[in-house]
Amino acid sequence: MGICGTCKVMKTAGEVEMEHNGGITDEDVAEGYILSCCSVPKGDVAIDY
Ligand code: FES
User: Fold this and answer.
1) What are the DSSP E strand ranges found in 14-48?
2) Atom of ligand 1 nearest to the CA of 23
3) What's the pLDDT tens digit per position in 20-39?
């Protein structure tokens, strides 16, 4: 549901549509992190975890 932040991963390529509920900060998003539980890939995506 995008609340706890447990699933936070670094996205290294591609774009996602993310609808979270406060589980990630704007600063994290700016650095490239996403919450994998509530992100839908728009195409090919690469992550580090
Ligand atoms: S924010 Fe809790 S599992 Fe993704």
Assistant:
1) 16-18, 33-35, 39-41, 46-48
2) 1
3) 999 999 999 999 999 999 99
